[in-house]
Design a protein that fits this description.
two-stranded antiparallel ribbon; 65% helix; mainly alpha; globular; 9 helices; 235 residues
Length: 235
């Protein structure tokens, strides 16, 4: 939405153009039904209350230590082929297999971050709003990314003509979510390091947040072309 306003320039603020109303409608969602800040506090505290065993210290250490293939950051995949550069042709991997594996690591990351924070702060965690907000952002991005992947996979399974576009959208979103997750996780690691967290904690978090990504520029161009061709949101 912000980029749309930018395209229209000063006219983006004018009621004669559609972006003005869209921007106001989008922005209000961060205020009504509880502000973003309040809702972000609810996410981790509700998880701790409903599933305390999942975020116990032992579970948090296990989530951090679990082994899974981690992509090399220098490896960039071609989103149109669903394979990594240099990978063998005809690979049985699905186009979104890397994103699926990344989401699985994000779930472990959320458990590790919240579990370690709970162990470090104890009952005082509810007062550490900045830490809780960063962990909530990781959980939110995990949910949003998996939702995008699920819809793209469902469209592909039905053989819909727009399935490749949905895949582009899911991969582009995952690309950008990975950067936000990494930034949020770094903030939590820094806060827990100051409280004497084990040196292996930061290294484990870094392994879980690694994501090779796709050519996001090309993917976004294909998405933009589809929107322009359809004259509306195409899905």
């Amino acid at each position: 939405m912000d980029e749309g306003i930018q395209v229209f320039g000063g006219n983006g603020y004018s009621r004669e153009f559609p972006l003005e109303r869209m921007y106001r409608d989008a922005r209000i969602t961060r205020i009504y039904e509880g502000t973003n800040e309040i809702n972000r506090m609810l996410v981790p505290t509700r998880l701790l209350k409903q599933q305390p065993q999942l975020f116990a210290a032992e579970s948090a250490r296990a989530a951090l230590a679990a082994q899974s293939p981690v992509p090399q950051p220098s490896l960039v995949r071609d989103p149109s082929s669903g394979s990594a550069a240099g990978a063998k042709a005809g690979s049985p991997q699905s186009p979104l297999s890397a994103e699926r594996e990344y989401v699985a690591r994000l779930k472990r990351l959320a458990i590790a971050l919240l579990g370690h924070a709970s162990a470090a702060y104890g009952d005082g965690l509810k007062e550490e709003q900045e830490v809780l907000a960063q962990i909530a952002d990781v959980v939110i991005e995990t949910y949003a990314t998996e939702s995008a992947l699920a819809r793209a996979e469902k469209m592909a399974a039905r053989g819909e003509g727009r399935a490749s576009l949905a895949s582009d959208i899911a991969q582009a979103y995952t690309n950008e979510a990975a950067d936000r997750v990494a930034a949020a996780a770094r903030q939590v690691v820094a806060a827990l390091d100051a409280r004497g967290a084990d040196a292996s904690f930061g290294a484990g978090v870094q392994r879980l947040t690694a994501h090779a990504g796709v050519d996001g520029i090309a993917a976004r161009r294909r998405i933009a072309n589809a929107v322009i061709e359809a004259g509306k949101y195409p899905l």
